[in-house]
Amino acid sequence: MTSSAPTPELPPVYCPVEPAVHPAVEAIERRAVAWVDRVGLYRDDRERRRVLGTNSAEFYARFAPFGPEHNVQMAAHWVYWGFAFDDARCDAGPLSARPDLFLAMAGPLQRALEVPDERMSEDPLVAALQDVGRSFRECAGPVQVRRFTEAHRAWLFAVAWQIVNRVRGHMPGLADYTAMRLHCSGGPPTLAMLEIATAAEVPAREMDSPAVRALTEMAILVAAWDNDLHSYRKETVEGHTDQNLVNVLMRDGGGTAEEAMLRAVGLRDRVMARFLRLRDEVRRTASQDLRRYLDCLGHAIRGNIDWALRTPRYNDAEVAGVPMAAPRWVDRPSDPATEPLPIPGIAWWWDPLAP
């Protein structure tokens, strides 16, 4: 399906983080493509093009631009797997409208990740995930691996929540949507891999502190909301924008999609500004591994934007018509307010959070 509509102009983007990418990104991509072919993340040439069109190696090379090459390589494999799984089992396919069947599949899938040395299924997606799990155990410590597997479980749970809303025809309000989007976007496992990709291990007293928890969630939400904005045109053409920040804001406040998009940018910029202020506070007394992690959170936000502007996933001419226009970068948030957003569940991010 094609669209003849003009390319929508992206609202100005506030993200004062310099772009960065791992110097070995091309080699990482070549090896990742070979891995995708070896483990069979697709059924035919069309699915192969879609999987490779996620540009997952570039995606994660922007998140961890200074990690050991092998570790970034292993993280990129999971990103390819995650996009393939999302397309086949979450957004489309028979499980995308059956939360009962999705959960029946997701439980054994999660267990297969936790015990990757035991062959637990003939499903190629399960086998590929176990391959990722084995590689993580070889290049990372048990703490990093445990953090990743727990984040992976949270993601699967939130996807089931999203599917339930879809089946019920329920458009969540902003508070529920925000809570759901913090996890169903895939952000928790993606950011949990930062320690693995950079060979870091943030001490628990730092990683589990309210300030670092808030910073992690802020990075996830900004990236998730950015994806909502970047994917809106493509999802409109494909007919599944039911749970997208733009539609949620239209439901809550009315108006056009363009007006809702501007409101969305205001929300997103408020979180981005709080992230930058709190990150600078925490960084002053952080350990070396925590500083590395905090730097990567910033790279993740910026890298996600740069990746979205290039990936065929959002810029496929067969779907979206023409590529998105380049954004206009600005050095100030569109909403300069510094008080907490009136969204239960995240307002605590603006509390005094000791580093």
Summary tags:
Farnesyl Diphosphate Synthase, 355 residues, 66% helix, mainly alpha, 16 helices, disordered N terminus, two-stranded parallel sheet
Q: Can you tell me about this structure?
A:
- It is an enzyme of class 4 (lyase).
- It holds the Pfam family Terpene_syn_C_2.
- With 355 residues, this protein is mainly α.
- It has a single domain (18-350), classed as Orthogonal Bundle (Farnesyl Diphosphate Synthase).
- Helix content is 66%, strand content 1%.
- It is built from 16 helices and two strands.
- It has helices at residues 25-39, 45-52, 56-63, 69-90, 99-114, 124-139, 142-168, 174-184, 187-198, 204-207, 210-238, 245-253, 257-283, 288-308, 312-315, 317-320; strands at 13-14, 329-330.
- A two-stranded parallel sheet has the order 1-2.
- The longest helix has 29 residues, at 210-238.
- The chain starts with 12 loop residues before the first strand and ends in a 25-residue tail after the last strand.
- 45% of the residues are buried.
- The model is unreliable at 1-7 (pLDDT under 50).
SSE topology sketch:
Blueprint: E1 13-14, H1 25-39, H2 45-52, H3 56-63, H4 69-90, H5 99-114, H6 124-139, H7 142-168, H8 174-184, H9 187-198, H10 204-207, H11 210-238, H12 245-253, H13 257-283, H14 288-308, H15 312-315, H16 317-320, E2 329-330
Parallel strand pairs: 1-2
Helix count, DSSP H or I runs of 4 or more residues: 16
Count of distinct strands:
2
Largest sheet strand order: 1-2
Instruction: Indicate the percent of residues in helices.
Output: 55-70%
The CATH class assignment is: Mainly Alpha
Series of H and E elements: EHHHHHHHHHHHHHHHHE
Uncertain runs with pLDDT below 50, 5 residues or more? 1-7
> CATH superfamily, please?
Farnesyl Diphosphate Synthase
